[in-house]
Amino acid sequence: MSRAESVAVKRREPRAAPSIRARDRTPARTDAGSRRGWKRHLEGWQPGLVAVFIAGAAATLAVPRAVEPAELPLPLVDARALTRARDADVTRAREAEQLGLDAEVRELGSAIRAFGVVDADADHTEAELLAARKRVLDAVGPALAQGDEAVLRLRAYQMSSFIREVRRFEATGEESDELRDLGGNFLGLLRRSGWIGRGEAKPRGEARRVAMDGTVLGVLFKKRWDAIVGVQRAPFGISLDEERALFRFLLTHPVSAARGAQDLAAPPAEQAARLDPASEPAPRSPTAALRAAEAQRAEEQYRLKKIDELAALDPSYPRHLARGVALYRLGKFAQSAEAFRSHLEQHPDGANTLRAQNYLRAAVERAREEQL
Predict the structure, then answer these.
(1) In this structure, are 250 and 332 located in the same domain?
(2) Among 195, 221, 255, where does a domain finish?
(3) What backbone phi and psi angles, to 5 degrees, belong to 353?
(4) What is the pLDDT of residue 8?
(5) Whether residue 325 sits in one domain with residue 249
(6) Is residue 23 part of a domain?
(7) Bond into 235 cis (ω within 30)
(8) What is the largest CA-CA distance in the chain?
(9) 73 in helix, strand or coil?
(10) Confidence of residue 293 (pLDDT cuts 50, 70, 90)
(11) 189 domain-assigned
(12) Separation CA 265–CA 288 (nearest Å)
């Protein structure tokens, strides 16, 4: 063998080893592939199982089931619209304070305050109230002659003062002359309606807590003010969203004529427990339970009335769904079922469809139980 051949052999020998090692590894790769062959059919099974579970859950939820109609639909309020109305009133009140008011407009303001004094007097006569109202009506024409905006500034200024005095009453428990002038017997309305409670004790007096927020206070004031002055046309009155805010409050804080009688007729121990929020609830006597049931019926009757009033102002409000809930609470299950059916006929699809179907099943079942 020549020297060149020897060199060629030596150069080829190192390349033989990798081929042998490659052959040695090939069976190992083949075995691993065969072992994984059955697993590849299950790759991605987790997302598929989740999708099947979600589909099954959705199908279950879509099937109507009997649900107690406990949730009353409330009107939807556009917070931005309320903010615009509030900002407009704040601007007008500031202009009235900075620029002043015409003499004719100030005379109307004085007449409204005089009416409030008579209205706040529990012993006033009908003749006195009529005379005070006549003074207001006599002052309206000259005031409006100065322009609608001038009279709206007066209303906004008096509304701002009224809300301030209500907050002062909450802090001190004392009714100011300003509050009586601008609100008349407003505190009497709060007490009769159950819209006032005991607040935190203050050094100078007994604090109170008024149930309504600033928006509702303002809406109530403007409605009363417009009624006294006798102007219902634009730009007076209140917006639809202000009406919605008011009805939202009235549906969640219904006036009950039976509530005052219930509190007065309760035993002294029961009355004391109601005044002290920290006290343990006392067991109800049969008489107390009967009074509570009467109060509940009166509240639901009040809600039915307000539901119809709201629907007349706001066609988007689900009147039949709301009536179905109130009627169910009254124990009128057949009428409740009919109201839910009416809602589903008018709204076969929508956000409240499944809820109405569930409520309908509950009402139908209760109506059948009554017939047995």
Answers:
(1) no
(2) 255
(3) -65, -55
(4) 44
(5) no
(6) no
(7) yes
(8) 145
(9) coil
(10) confident
(11) yes
(12) 9
Q: How far apart are the first and last CA of the chain?
A: 117
Cα–Cα distance measured from residue 57 to residue 50, given in angstroms and rounded to the nearest whole number: 10
Measured at the CA of 5, the angle between CA 4 and CA 8, to 5 degrees, comes to 90
pLDDT digits (tens, 9 = 90+) for 135-160: 999 999 999 999 999 999 999 999 99
- Domain region containing 371: 297-372
Taking the C-alpha atoms of residue 196 and residue 187, their distance in angstroms, rounded to an integer, is: 9
Q: Please give the torsion angle defined by the CA atoms of residues 237, 242, 246 and 251, in that order, rounded to the nearest 10 degrees.
A: 130
* Residue pLDDT, tens place only, 308-352: 999 999 999 999 999 999 999 999 999 999 999 999 999 999 899
5 in a domain, yes or no? no
CB neighbour class for 352 (10 Å; exposed up to 12, middle 13-18, buried from 19): middle
Amino acid, single-letter form, for residue 135: R
Buried b (16+ CB within 10 A) or exposed e, 73-110: bebebeeeebeebeeebeebbebbeeeebbebbebbbe
Clarify whether residues 224 and 308 are in a common domain: no
**Rounded-to-integer distance, Cα 25 and Cα 32, Å:** 11
Same domain, 201 and 302: no
pTM of the model: 0.75
Q: Which residue stretches of the chain are H helix?
A: 3-36, 45-62, 79-99, 103-120, 126-144, 148-172, 177-183, 186-193, 214-229, 240-252, 257-265, 268-275, 286-313, 319-329, 333-346, 353-371
How many C-beta atoms surround the C-beta of residue 189 within 10 A? 15
Do 96 and 160 belong to one domain? Answer: yes
Distance CA(68)–CA(355), nearest Å, equals 10
Q: Strands 196-202, 205-210: parallel, antiparallel or unpaired by DSSP?
A: antiparallel
Q: What is the CATH number of the domain that holds 329?
A: 1.25.40.10
Does a structural domain hold residue 279? Answer: no
Task: Tell whether 91 and 192 lie within a shared domain.
Answer: yes
Number of domains in the chain: 2
The model's confidence at residue 261, banded by pLDDT at 50, 70 and 90, is very low
Determine the residue type at 322.
A
Q: pLDDT by residue (tens digit) across 220-229? A: 999 999 999 9
Same domain, 103 and 251: yes
**CA 209 to CA 224: how far, in whole Å?**
22
Is the same domain home to 135 and 224? yes
